[in-house]
Structure formats: structure tokens, C-alpha cells
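Backbone-to-sequence.
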């Protein structure tokens, strides 16, 4: 049975967080919105931890990769769960030494680690992680080959699940045909690849509903923004701006306020 087939057999309703209710225009903004794509991301992360295995999640920005990872970790805070999950942002991190130091800073090890050699630091970090824990390495596209190859140590030596997230470069560096020959040890450990080329209209509809956009013109315009370069992140930014105006004028959040917000944000030329 393939990893993808096993993933589809996991109950999304049981494992994924419940969707948030529609927010009133004068109430707090939605802290979390579950979308069809965020369900896939959540399930892929869960698969990495429970198997354990290496999962590769890659694609366009603004599809909820980072926010879903943060949500997953929030529900499995290592302070309260023996097999906790850790979300490590590696934006701009390139070398294996910098990667290991960043992991060290996030997992808040209970002991002092003073290691100048990568292998020593890697072993010390692994010993601080319980088998069945999870490391989510976000923005992994900048990692150099030696750093990418080093992450498998945690899976091999400690049964710690791994998620590598980032843009298309992550896939090209590890799992493309040209890379597999150089990263055979790492690519052979990939239990699941989840490609997210763009948000979907259903994703946009879920976000728009949570923010209280009910008019057809507003939904249509919101979908257009979500399917653009900024994805759901751009849509959420626009909705925050429009919602402030809606609360100030005691109006519903509709397409007119959304257009005004887009103009203020420079999205309309």
C-alpha cells in the first residue's frame, strides 16, 4: 500500500482541527481558518509523526503551509506532550551548523549543549528528542546539500518524524530526477510528497466565509485575489484592511470595501 493511499485512509474529520465559525464584522478576526488544503497539510504532517517518516510539502506561497504547521505544533506543545512537535523556521539558514543551532534554540533543550562539531551537536539534539517526536523544518529551500542530508539523522537514530517544507526549490533539491542520484540516502526516506501549486477556490471560499463575506461579488473578487501571486496570505491581508473599514462604518464586509482595501494596498493598478 502506498504512502498516499494510507494518507487518504486517515480520517480528516477525526484528526484535523474543527473549522472556525464566521466572525462578525465588529468582533475579533479569525485566528485560524481550516481550508481543504490545510486539511491535506495537517494530515501529511500527522503522517510524518505517526509513521514516522520524512514528508516533503512544497509549492506556492500563501497556501497555509506555515500557519497549518503552527496550528499542528500548538496542539502538540512539547511542554504538555511527551512526543511533541517543533516548528523550526529556517528562512535564510544555509549551513548545517546554522540549521542545528536553530533547532537547538527552538526545542529548548533541558541541558546545556556546548558543541563545536556538527556531529556532536546533532547527537546531543537527538538525545533530547523522544522517539515519535516531530521536527517541521519550514522554509527549507535555502539549505545547502550537506544540511539537507544531515536531517535524516534524526529519523534514523531516534525515530523522529521529519517534515521539510518550502517552495519548489525544496523538491528540486531533494526529489527531482537530477537530485535523486546525489541524495539517494535522503530521497529514499521520503514517505510522502505533497505538492501545493496554488490555493483552490474552495480554500478562498472557506476564508471568505470565516471573515463574514457573504455577497456573490465579494466572494468572486476574493477568489481572484487568492488565486493571484500572494495566495491566501494576500487575501487575509486585504480582508483585515477591509474589515477595519467595515467596523468603523458599521457596514457589512462586501465587495466594495474589498475593492477599496485592494486599492489602498496597491493591488489595483
Amino acid at each position: 500500500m502506498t504512502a498516499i493511499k494510507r494518507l487518504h485512509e486517515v480520517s480528516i474529520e477525526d484528526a484535523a482541527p474543527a473549522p472556525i465559525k464566521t466572525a462578525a464584522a465588529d468582533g475579533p478576526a479569525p485566528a485560524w481558518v481550516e481550508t481543504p488544503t490545510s486539511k491535506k497539510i495537517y494530515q501529511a504532517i500527522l503522517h510524518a509523526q505517526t509513521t514516522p517518516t520524512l514528508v516533503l510539502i512544497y509549492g506556492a506561497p500563501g497556501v497555509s503551509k506555515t500557519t497549518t504547521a503552527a496550528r499542528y505544533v500548538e496542539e502538540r506543545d512539547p511542554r504538555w506532550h511527551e512526543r511533541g512537535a517543533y516548528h523550526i523556521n529556517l528562512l535564510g539558514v544555509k549551513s548545517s551548523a546554522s540549521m542545528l543551532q536553530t533547532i537547538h534554540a527552538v526545542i529548548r533543550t533541558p541541558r546545556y549543549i556546548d558543541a563545536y562539531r556538527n556531529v556532536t551537536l546533532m547527537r546531543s539534539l537527538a538525545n533530547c528528542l523522544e522517539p515519535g517526536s516531530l521536527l517541521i523544518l519550514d522554509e527549507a529551500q535555502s539549505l545547502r546539500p550537506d544540511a539537507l542530508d544531515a536531517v535524516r539523522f534524526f529519523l534514523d537514530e531516534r525515530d523522529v518524524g521529519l517534515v521539510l517544507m518550502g517552495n519548489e526549490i525544496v523538491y528540486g533539491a531533494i526529489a527531482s530526477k537530477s537530485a535523486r542520484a546525489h541524495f539517494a540516502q535522503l530521497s529514499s526516506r521520503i514517505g510522502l510528497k505533497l505538492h501545493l501549486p496554488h490555493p483552490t477556490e474552495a480554500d478562498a471560499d472557506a476564508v471568505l466565509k470565516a471573515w463574514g463575506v457573504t455577497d456573490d461579488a465579494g466572494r468572486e473578487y476574493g477568489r481572484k485575489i487568492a488565486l493571484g501571486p500572494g495566495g491566501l496570505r494576500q487575501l487575509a491581508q486585504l480582508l483585515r484592511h477591509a474589515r477595519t473599514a467595515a467596523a468603523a462604518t458599521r457596514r457589512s464586509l462586501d465587495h466594495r470595501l474589498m475593492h477599496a482595501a485592494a486599492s489602498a494596498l496597491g493591488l489595483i493598478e
